[in-house]
Design goal:
The complex is a heterotetramer, with 2 copies of chain A and 2 copies of chain B. Chain A has 11 helices and 14 strands. By secondary structure, chain A is of the alpha+beta class. In chain A, helix 4 crosses helix 9. Chain B is an alpha+beta fold. Chain B has 3 domains: 139 residues, Alpha-Beta Plaits, CATH 3.30.70; 148 residues, Sulfite Reductase Hemoprotein, domain 1; 61 residues, Alpha-Beta Plaits, CATH 3.30.70. In chain B, helix 4 runs antiparallel to helix 5. The chains are: A alpha+beta, B alpha+beta. Chains A and B meet through strand 1, strand 4, helix 2, strand 5 and helix 4 of A and helix 1, helix 2, helix 3, strand 1 and strand 5 of B. Strand 4 of chain C pairs antiparallel with strand 6 of chain D. Bound molecules: siroheme (4 copies) and iron/sulfur cluster (8 copies). One siroheme sits at the interface of chains B and A.
Chain lengths: 356, 396, 356, 396
């Protein structure tokens, strides 16, 4: 069967063709919105026109059949228009108000999970994990599923002080926004990599490999034409493995995940913040990582209990102080928590005013 | 084909209320032996706690240097369906809007040539088609491109720009994020498809300081909409919020970071000392019917954010506090070109622009792109009295 | 004339012998104090006993004759007891209340400057300058005198939102607390040092000299056995000169002073803070450095006008934002203000929320 | 001798109300040709905008390696009186208390053997005698030490400890700063007088978080008094402050950094949630009759502050959040000894302890001195997931 003629450098299709007519008409002229329920909202335009959105959870990893199922629903209630959010939820765009309730009803019947709007947990931004990435040191999808099963009602129903953004990254390359998330999980190694001296000279550029190390732990080995790793200095980031495959960092017995907290990207009230280390390590414990799930839930619920309305996790922690975060959550403080990377100095406490 | 593998571990992940990715893989596995072997290999990973993927080799489509992530199983005999399992990054439309027709076309192509598995969407923003063989790549590309789709970026290239929903469905958008995203994507087609940069370069665009595409945290260039004049206040609506029970003093005024708001509970009116407002969006977000961004709209340009490797994670830094953005965005394009040129001229391989700015100093970067020093670029001036004087500084 | 027998390692005299009886009696049992005037206060003990303090300005550089004058007064009103403060003011300790007013009267008659207590400017902590230090790149005492003449009434009388701590250092060794002062002056060079290749090998340890450079601008010169300075990297700190005299950093034409602001050491309300660069340069302009004096006054009075009660300079600036500090004071923002030393990254603004 | 030099520049600095150092030098110059030549050389500096001092050579008194700063004029022919012009650092008594008798004795000695110029006091805390000749040093020392005075520190040694006035005249002192300062000075006599450290080591002691000796900014070991239990409230006095017109809500409660105070304007009472109080001292300082520190007193130990050279200025870092301090302070001495030992074993020449901790990592330091990790030691935990595991961490 002949293939159609290929084109190059055409770029993505212009978005306009995918916009529902009411959006095209009121583009740039929206006046306000109202959150109607944890998964529905309406936006009202200056013209008085309205558009309704129903947000539905997605595992992000979707089969074509599931996409077709979704399309079928969108055809029925949304004139064939839908979108996805920046956190990978599905949004059904309803132009005809009368179709809102029936849509919600059908979604419920078909066991779709409606929610994620307003001060709640939304979908977890995550990465490939064992599903697809050679670098993965845990499975992202499995962690997400396990956590969201546990936090389900925080997506569909329960209110929190503010939005809580979760993320999972399967290695420190952090292909998500782990470094600025309210609560996030990042997979970490704990043993220096093993060097295959035979293949390194064949497959790797030595200077690039040396330069790849954040702690300058790698030096060339003129004898073997390979490299030597100073194990004292290595903090197991795996970047040498990224640039030089014969350096193997995986160690199933000692790999696992860390939990970081308190990041945000929005500018509301306080500046965007990096996430900070809360718990340095859990062993990988598939299929459901129960300790990790409980630790996330504990942090979330401690926040829910103590934070003021509109405070993000990081804002709450900064108000009460990190020493109090550790005492309220009951998390142990270890040497790993104390920074020793480039900017460590700025994290040391330079004040006699703190809580016990 | 289904049922080739027993997957007791993964089956656990079909339990519980949240939609299950395992169910998705199983669905695809019914039609595709690629998906089926993905399932099998993944079950093995769950048992042994490790992945079985090799470092990706370079694969792609003719004339392009990116858009496909090569991926090979390290157990090709055990799982021949995933011996090759490359992903195809399809450049999403701005704002992630689709018609069902368009999505179905993509599904059909992918059922024919791929595993039937996708990611909607990848973290950068692409519509990711997950897993196919080398020999199918050209066919996939021909099918896609003939229907108006193109590939996204990978490797040391411009990466697929992305943006928040913006003016399409948000009352706070100060710039047309979707149009700008589309324009820049089109403008950088060559750089997107033919990696020639020192490393990746990402652009993300949010319409306001809520930053719903997390631009400030994960884009080499973060464009964030804002305004210069005064917040528009509708005092009638202020009163209605008060009457509806909103504690304006506590939830709005007391949480304003610049303490520039004054609420009079007597007549239920709100005043803002606009010169002191930093446009953080808190009050507007919580009182959307009463407060709106100002009318003199534009964007702040920030540069440099990225993930932790090598120097630690970065958030983007303010470079241009305010720029008007009107199509065709020539000023902006020119400025981005200058940024990239300087980066390209000076960076080592695998050095992101943020890392380079830190290494060379902010002054070198600002001078190269012709932006003057402004206090908005810093949180605070330097502390130690260790500073340089250029010859030009002595002239005056 | 024979010298008395020397003793070694006896340490300082025990402080107890210098304490007025009322202090010895109420040691550790003070209840509260009251500020009676800008230069007088009383401390009340649990026992009801009182001690009165009269604070008097000092140039710190005192001749023995002036010390004797002070002693005479202390004998007359304080039973011979007095002390100095950590900012080098003189404190007359009055145990007998009836002697307070006569003391103040005599001090005024003799033109002593009474003040410095409470929310005011106190004495300027400073260093040697041209009076005694080989490293001095300005004169500290002259600057102090010129500034305090201008700010006189802020010591003797006028209230400010809070204490304002000034400091002057005559080189970046900063033998004061410039790095944590409300407003401070530090002398800076602006040209790389000149190396005397003949004497460097004779008088300096090359490795120490190389290591002394904060920017790694110095490398050994194997040919001359001296060193080479990479002028591009040098930021004129003069540390190489400190460890190696034949490296000359002084350049009278281009030396001068910078003004830094916003530091504090107390923990009240907010953590101790470093001072930050406000004005990168003024030429040395002895004997009275009029532009420097006016710049300090401008910053002080802008603070006095805009800060809230109890706010220190740094707290005020952090509340309004540095961009507003520059617009309110009318100080120009230059490339020198943007950090490029080790921790520069943390000073770059990572937020879309700022003022214009 | 007076009148040898015309000093039009310096004469300008005798004008104006603030006490003039020029007047002081002139006073001394009437009696001392050292002081007179100091005046002449200084006038020259004012004209040429540069100093005329050479790098100090090593001079001192027998058996001591420090306490004297050698200083020589670079124009000895022009100004022979300051050809030598060394300073003698006399260790001040704790708290800078004196009797007139003691001060006069020092003045007499200094008139006899020195320039008649002093600094009361030097920045570190010493009583500085400014300017004498090498040949007079032994005589000065004999005169001083026979009368109970000793030299302070200089060079790579323990430096003269200093402290705030503390319990002698301050109601907020949580520790006996003057006793502790004296005890430590005595304990470290050998280290103070015979430089054998990698670089200088300074100790400063403040009785509370007001930190009136600026310990946190300029001492390798900063000791700051604090308490563990609850602020003592006298509600009668609270009421009196309110009645006297203090706006307790605005000036106290709203400025409390931990927002742990509650004021009831009805009955004019104040409540504090003490577990949330960080003991910043604001409320106590502003309401000293009503509020007092708690009763379980001790100190926080912080380490590392210094001036900017080489790595940038440092503030001290919390190492021990709370330690009871009772004479003879054996725990504390032992801990300081361990700190110094580790520093001595590991530092390069001219490396301060703060710089070494940064270079080696906080863990290495804490383990060496036997202090466990505590959240009080940090403002915030690390951000990037780049951390080490020691063998010992795997054991559990
Ligand atoms: C649909 C979406 C944009 C898109 O192009 O897809 C979106 C849409 C809206 N965002 Fe957002 N945000 C979306 C991702 C984000 C992100 C990005 C992210 O999570 O990675 C952020 C930054 C999060 C952070 O700071 O870490 C974000 C921070 C906000 C905020 C600020 C919240 C705060 O107080 O910090 C608001 C304002 C608010 O909630 O009051 C906001 C408000 C809104 C509003 C109300 C704007 C409007 O008037 O339409 C929209 C619906 C709110 C809702 O979902 O509760 N949106 N929003 C994204 C939905 C993601 C999802 O499926 O959950
Ligand atoms: C597919 C995706 C994750 C996902 O599940 O969504 C992904 C997957 C990979 N990323 Fe990524 N990155 C993806 C978004 C990101 C993001 C987020 C973003 O773009 O907003 C980041 C953080 C932001 C940033 O750029 O810093 C990210 C930071 C990295 C890094 C670290 C780069 C750095 O400078 O620190 C690497 C390492 C590398 O480039 O060698 C990396 C490398 C990789 C590689 C190519 C693995 C490698 O070492 O070569 C992964 C291929 C996995 C696979 O086999 O499918 N990926 N990567 C995302 C791209 C999909 C898309 O095109 O839409
Ligand atoms: C006498 C002296 C201690 C000594 O041992 O010599 C002293 C004495 C007192 N200080 Fe102090 N402080 C003294 C140097 C300091 C320093 C150190 C410095 O300036 O180098 C500081 C830290 C300054 C900083 O943060 O940069 C200092 C920060 C304070 C504060 C905190 C002010 C604030 O809000 O930040 C208080 C509390 C207050 O003022 O309400 C305070 C309060 C006091 C009290 C009221 C304590 C008391 O109850 O006796 C004393 C009289 C106050 C006054 O002078 O207004 N004292 N005080 C020092 C006088 C220096 C001078 O001559 O001016
Ligand atoms: C006299 C005094 C200044 C004053 O006018 O009061 C002083 C004077 C000198 N200091 Fe200092 N320092 C003095 C207190 C300080 C302080 C403040 C303090 O101790 O609280 C500091 C900042 C805190 C610190 O230690 O970091 C200080 C930081 C320095 C430095 C930088 C040290 C560093 O690690 O960054 C040097 C450079 C050096 O040691 O080579 C230095 C070096 C010097 C030398 C010895 C010059 C040199 O390069 O060798 C100066 C001798 C001047 C002279 O001829 O009289 N001086 N020096 C102070 C000592 C008097 C006393 O004993 O009471
Ligand atoms: S985070 Fe690491 S393991 Fe996960 S997809 Fe990205 S590169 Fe791969
Ligand atoms: S794993 Fe990271 S720290 Fe360790 S040697 Fe490799 S690059 Fe360096
Ligand atoms: S970033 Fe602003 S403009 Fe864009 S969707 Fe979010 S709230 Fe709306
Ligand atoms: S946008 Fe933010 S800073 Fe401006 S008035 Fe509203 S809350 Fe205050
Ligand atoms: S600051 Fe510099 S010039 Fe001044 S006394 Fe200290 S070392 Fe000497
Ligand atoms: S002056 Fe400072 S920066 Fe310049 S060479 Fe000397 S030590 Fe280095
Ligand atoms: S530091 Fe505290 S105890 Fe010492 S004098 Fe100052 S206020 Fe009093
Ligand atoms: S000491 Fe500080 S933190 Fe504690 S109650 Fe008083 S003001 Fe608040």
């Amino acid at each position: 069967m002949a293939l159609p003629e290929r084109k190059t450098d055409i770029g993505p299709p212009h978005y306009e063709q995918f916009l529902p007519p009411v959006i095209k008409k009121n583009y740039g002229k929206w006046l306000y919105h109202e959150v109607l329920s944890p998964g529905t909202m309406k936006h009202v335009a200056e013209s008085g026109d309205e558009i309704y959105t129903v947000r539905v959870a997605s595992p992000r990893l979707l089969s074509t059949d599931s996409i077709r199922d979704i399309c079928e629903i969108a055809d029925k209630y949304c004139d064939g228009y839908l979108r996805f959010t920046t956190r990978n939820n599905i949004e059904f765009l309803v132009s005809d108000k009368s179709k809102l309730d029936p849509l919600v009803k059908e979604l419920k019947e078909k066991n779709y999970t409606i929610g994620g709007i307003g001060p709640r947990v939304s979908n977890i931004v995550h990465t490939q994990g064992w599903v697809h990435c050679h670098s993965a040191c845990t499975d992202a999808s499995g962690l997400v599923k396990s956590i969201m099963d546990e936090l389900y009602e925080y997506f569909t129903e329960k209110e929190l002080p503010n939005k809580v953004r979760l993320a999972v990254a399967c290695c420190v390359n952090m292909c998500g926004a782990v470094h600025c998330s309210d609560i996030a999980i990042v997979a970490v190694h704990r043993k220096p990599p093993v060097v295959d001296d035979e293949n390194v000279p064949k497959l790797c550029e030595i200077p690039t490999t040396v330069a790849s190390c954040p702690t300058a732990a790698i030096r060339p080995n003129p004898k073997t034409k390979s490299i030597i790793i100073n194990e004292e200095r290595c903090m197991y980031c795996g970047n040498c493995f990224t640039v030089c495959p014969p350096i193997s960092i995986h160690n199933p017995e000692e790999d696992g995940v860390a939990i970081v907290v308190g990041g945000k990207v929005s500018n509301l009230r306080s500046d965007p913040k990096f996430s900070k280390l809360a718990i340095p390590f859990f062993y990988n414990d598939p299929p459901r990582w129960p300790k990790v799930v409980q630790a996330v839930k504990n942090i979330l619920e401690t926040y829910a209990k103590h934070a003021r309305k509109h405070e993000r996790v990081g804002e709450w922690v900064e108000r009460i102080g990190w020493e109090r975060f550790f005492s309220l959550t009951g998390i142990e403080f270890t040497f790993q928590h104390i920074d020793d990377f480039t900017f460590a100095r700025d994290t040391f406490r330079t004040s006699a005013a703190f809580k016990f | 084909m289904s049922g080739k593998y027993k997957t007791p571990m993964l089956d656990e992940l079909e339990k519980g209320p949240w939609p299950s990715f395992v169910t998705e893989i199983k669905k695809a596995a019914k039609k595709s032996d690629m998906a089926e072997d993905e399932l099998g290999q993944l079950e093995k990973s769950y048992n042994t706690k490790r992945g079985y993927w090799k470092h990706g080799g370079i694969v792609g489509v003719l004339g392009y240097g990116g858009g496909v992530i090569g991926r090979y199983s390290s157990l090709p005999e055990e799982f021949p369906g995933v011996a090759h399992f490359h992903t195809v990054r399809v450049n999403q439309p701005s704002g992630f809007f689709y018609t069902t027709k368009a999505l179905r076309e993509i599904c059909d192509i992918w059922d024919k040539y791929g595993s039937g598995l996708t990611n909607l969407h990848g973290s950068t923003g692409d519509l990711v088609l997950l897993g196919t063989k080398t020999e199918n790549l050209e066919a996939v590309f021909a099918e896609l491109s003939s229907r108006g789709w193109d590939l996204g970026g990978s490797g040391s290239a411009m990466r697929t720009p992305s943006c928040c929903v913006g003016m399409a469905r948000c009352e706070w958008a100060n710039i047309d994020t979707m149009d700008l995203c589309n324009e820049l994507t089109q403008y950088y087609q060559d750089q997107l498809h033919r990696p020639a940069f020192p490393y990746k370069f990402k652009i993300k665009i949010s319409g306001c300081a809520c930053d719903c595409v997390a631009a400030i945290a994960r884009a080499d260039l973060s464009i964030i909409g804002t305004w210069k004049d005064s917040i528009q206040i509708n005092q009638d609506e202020v009163r209605k919020y008060a009457e509806a029970g909103l504690d304006i003093q506590k939830e709005i005024v007391d949480m304003c970071p610049t303490q520039c708001m004054y609420y009079n509970p007597e007549d239920k009116t709100l005043k803002i000392a606009d010169a002191e407002c930093n446009r953080c969006m808190h009050c507007i977000a919580k009182m959307t019917k009463a407060l709106r961004p100002g009318k003199e709209k534009g964007a702040t340009l920030l540069v440099g954010s990225k993930a932790p490797i090598v120097v630690g994670s970065l958030l983007s830094w303010v470079i241009v506090p305010f720029m008007k953005l009107t199509p065709p965005y020539d000023d902006l394009k020119e400025l981005i070109d200058k940024m990239i040129e300087w980066w390209d001229d000076n960076a080592k391989p695998r050095e992101r622009i943020g890392e380079l700015i830190e290494a060379k100093g902010m002054r070198a970067f600002l001078e190269a792109i012709g932006v003057p020093p402004m206090p908005q670029q810093v949180k605070e001036p330097r502390k130690d009295p260790f500073f340089f004087w250029a010859e030009s500084d002595f002239k005056k």
